């Protein structure tokens, strides 16, 4: 699903007006009607208090007041947060109608105490204060009102975007409405998929406001949400005439003494997403463990020193590498200097590679050579690993995760999967994909290893590495969300993701 920035959304509105002659008032009417339909569906019989700002978002609120009052005689009141002269021209049209209809309009600047009472006692509060036109931090009377809105026990519906959330970055500009539901228009905004925006939007619904479909599909954008439809389109084929070789031969390299679980989890995850064959290359001391833990895999037992893979393992791996299609390296491998040699051999190969965890530490010296490599590389860092690789602070990465992942991906020509609340996949052409799902239930050691396994297993089956990264992220998050719904937020284990990923696959297979 496409995601729009403020500029792209404005352009879309402008194109609808200039190319199709659709007046802005009609778009506003459709926007308001979409909110009206939602209110009738979910909150019929409740009184509605609409808070309106000066821009077109406030205009949407006034248009909604007219529809509620005229069609359903819903008890509706408007709180105007600015002087009426400051309303946008479309907003003024609806303001005049509301006034003539006799809809109660309270002026915040004149009746502050009364407005606070209205907010406190409201059943449904509609936030039409600021939309995509927010330009600076919220202060003064607007701040006070939003503070009161957040303290109210009313059900809160935000029009287009919760007031205070930046539509591109998801930043809170001063303060932001904590909505229970957000009805966004035509195309969701990037800021509705990133933190802290995701903590303010509640349930997100997309309302069609009649912008022609051709314009939306032509709309150029660089941001996409990884959703069910996208994931469905990326399922690898499973033809009748096939065998294990059809679905890729994967070599998983990792493990050190005391860290055997990570490579077992990752390798099992590879098989669970449909790969045909897996070989697990580990230090000698872990060979028995991997055989017992991942029954279906083959174990390649390698020389070790001090519990880590010894650099002589690189020569053995080089001899074996030809027979594999895909390599996953990193889970539990440790940061011994000896891993460097192994990474060198892996990078010299013509195989598709996924690098995770401590493998990323061994990758760093080779970053400048990656663009010249023909076969794809996917890296799956968490913010700490990303910080080590890029030199940015963790705080900066968390503050600008999209830019951080994008610039790294472009600079080195690799696919970056940044593991934050909603995983971000950055592609070297500058495109950004943001996971539409995610759950803190799997913020646990081992969850990253499972993701590495999912992506590696899909990469072995998919021709497109981007698809493997996107589908891997989707399956990981979707399974986590389903498990959290079933078991709650505390007791889901990363190994449960492996156990239950089949249900997520099945959901996609059965989707029409
Ligand atoms: N055809 C369309 O385009 C359609 C658009 N639609 C709707 O319009 C919305 C976008 O409308 P918009 O561009 O008028 O912006 P919006 O967010 O309502 O208000 C901006 C106003 O707030 C002000 N202001 C800004 N920051 C401030 C601050 N911190 N503190 C105080 N004031 C601040 C700013 O004034 P100024 O910066 O000049 O002071 C300006 O007056 C969009 O989200 C959707 O809901 C739909 O109807 C469908 C069709
Ligand atoms: K709003």
Structural account:
- This protein has 512 residues and is α/β, with parallel strands linked by helices.
- The chain folds into 2 domains: 2-225, Rossmann fold (3-Layer(aba) Sandwich); 240-510, Ribokinase (UDP-N-acetylmuramoyl-L-alanine:D-glutamate ligase, 3-Layer(aba) Sandwich).
- It is 43% helix and 16% strand.
- It has helices at residues 6-20, 24-42, 56-72, 89-101, 112-121, 140-151, 213-218, 228-232, 260-272, 287-293, 313-321, 339-348, 359-363, 383-390, 394-399, 401-412, 447-461, 465-487, 494-510; strands at residues 2-3, 48-52, 76-80, 105-107, 124-128, 155-159, 181-185, 203-207, 223-226, 249-253, 277-283, 298-302, 304-305, 308-309, 326-329, 352-355, 377-379, 415-418, 424-426, 432-435.
- An 11-stranded mixed sheet has the order 1-9-20-19-18-17-16-15-10-11-12, sandwiched between helices. It has a 7-stranded parallel sheet with strand order 4-3-2-5-6-7-8, sandwiched between helices.
- Strand 13 and strand 14 (308-309) form a beta hairpin.
- Helix 9 runs parallel beside helix 17.
- The structure holds ligand NPW and potassium ion.
- Ligand NPW binds next to helix 2 and helix 3.
- Potassium ion binds next to strand 5 and strand 6.
